[in-house]
Amino acid sequence: MTRPVILTACVNGGRPDAAELNPNLPVSPEAIAAAVAEAAKLGAAVAHIHVRDPKTGLPSNDIGLWRETVGLIRAAGTDILLNLSASMDGLLVLDDAAGFVPADGTTLRPAAGRADHVLALTPEIGTIDCGTFALGQAIHVARMGDLREMARLYGEKGVRAEVECFDFGHLEVARKLAAEGAFGQRPFMQICLGTGYGGAPATPAALAAMRERIPGGTVWAAFAAGEDNLWVMREAVAGGGHVRAGLEDALFDAAGEPTTNAALLSSAVETVYAAGGRPATPAEARAILGLPARS
Question: Which Pfam family would be a valid example here (predicted)?
Answer without folding.
Answer: BKACE
